[in-house]
Design brief:
single chain, alpha+beta, 7-stranded antiparallel β-sheet, 3-stranded antiparallel β-sheet
Length: 231
């Protein structure tokens, strides 16, 4: 009788362990869920994307020296994250690889920035999109005697987003030729209702990749939300 009870307990433990293992395997997360440092912005990416250190991207986009006081201040005001679906993830894939890349950043605006922010500023937040900023980019490189890395701009879509509660948004999709490859960028940018925070999500892949996987990338972009915090 004791042996029977012992066997029953052992069998129950074994079955439970098997079921738990099966649940873990079946319940493997399909997405990685992301919130910014303040918990105000949310999005999700497929779990097949690997997280990479976005620090170098921030420095590249800002032009700040990593040891400068400006860079230190930016760490307090700027949050960012990046995900790469490449088999060999790397931050320089922001501007080019055969696999998709996702970059997101949230900026707490200073008072001067608050006074200057506009939908066009949000369009140009990562790369030059408006004609004014594209001309400024080309002029700056010409004066420096450098060839532009970004050429052949094509605007594919530009829409203003109705968010309610005084928040504003814009979503732009555009092409740039980088080297021998045309890359497609899809950028969503939000300005919160206080006018004090800009949240940006940028998705990049080759134009051919985007043509095949646009619906998948739309799901990532559409998951990008401003969260209403209590209080």
């Amino acid at each position: 009788m004791k042996e029977t009870r012992a066997w029953t307990r052992w069998a129950a433990i074994t079955v439970a362990a098997f079921l738990m293992a099966g649940t873990a395997a079946c319940g493997q997360a399909e997405y990685t869920y992301v919130r910014d440092r303040e918990g105000t912005t949310y999005f999700r990416v497929p779990s097949s994307f690997s997280k990479v250190d976005s620090t170098q991207i921030d420095l590249l986009l800002s032009g700040d020296h990593p040891n400068s006081e400006t860079a230190k201040l930016r760490k307090q005001l700027v949050w960012s994250t990046a995900f790469d679906q490449s088999a060999e993830p790397a931050v320089d894939h922001l501007l080019g690889s055969q696999d998709p890349f996702v970059y997101s950043t949230v900026h707490l605006l200073t008072e001067p920035q608050r006074n200057m922010i506009s939908l066009n500023t949000m369009r140009d937040f990562v790369l030059p999109v408006t004609e004014e900023m594209r001309q400024a980019y080309a002029q700056r490189l010409m004066e420096a005697g450098q060839r532009p890395m970004l050429t052949g701009f094509e605007l594919l879509n530009d829409q203003q987003l109705a968010l309610g509660d005084g928040a504003r948004g814009v979503r732009v999709r555009f092409n740039y030729q980088i080297g021998d490859t045309v890359q497609t960028f899809d950028q969503t940018a939000y300005l919160d209702k206080t006018g004090g925070t800009v949240s940006v999500l940028l998705i990049r892949c080759t134009a051919e990749c985007f043509g095949k996987r646009a619906a998948e990338f739309d799901k990532i972009a559409e998951s990008f939300k401003l969260l209403k915090l209590p209080g």
